[in-house]
Amino acid sequence: MEMLKEELIPWAKETFGWDDETEEYEEEWTFQQDSAPKSYQKGMGQEPDEMVARVVDSWPGHLQACIDAEGGYIE
């Protein structure tokens, strides 16, 4: 979750524009994960916040690749 707060969210605000007054992005965008990792499947019985934390924590390499690609397509 820390990588989202420290890297992805600031990058998204800069890239897609962030309006502080409306607290909305100027351009619509989606953070998409194409497949459900094992941590998601294992987390099905957990509270939603715990499950999301496990999924995000299991993908730091993918998030860093997105940052390194400056928002370009990554595999």
Number of domain modules: 1
The ordered H/E elements are HEEHHH
Model regions low in confidence, pLDDT < 50 over at least 5 residues: none
| β-sheet strand percentage | 5-15%
Structural shape: globular
Helix content: 40-55%
Rg, Å, rounded: 14 Å
The number of distinct β-strands equals 2
Compute the average pLDDT: 76
Q: Which structural class do you get from the secondary structure elements?
A: mainly alpha
Q: Number of helical segments? A: 4
Q: Name the strands of the widest sheet in spatial order.
A: 1-2
Reconstruct the topology from this structure.
Layout: H1 2-16, E1 18-19, E2 24-25, H2 38-42, H3 48-57, H4 60-68
Antiparallel strand pairs: 1-2
Organism: Acrobeloides nanus
Protein name: Phage protein
Structural commentary:
This protein is mainly α. The protein has one domain (2-68). It has helices at residues 2-16, 38-42, 48-57, 60-68; strands at residues 18-19, 24-25. The chain has a two-stranded antiparallel sheet. A hairpin with a 4-residue loop joins strand 1 (18-19) and strand 2 (24-25). The radius of gyration is 14 Å and the shape is globular. The two termini are 21 Å apart. The model has no long low-confidence stretch (mean pLDDT 76). This is Phage protein.
Please give a handful of descriptors for the protein shown:
single chain, 75 residues, mainly alpha, two-stranded antiparallel ribbon, 4 helices, 2 strands
Compact description:
With 75 residues, the chain is mostly helical.
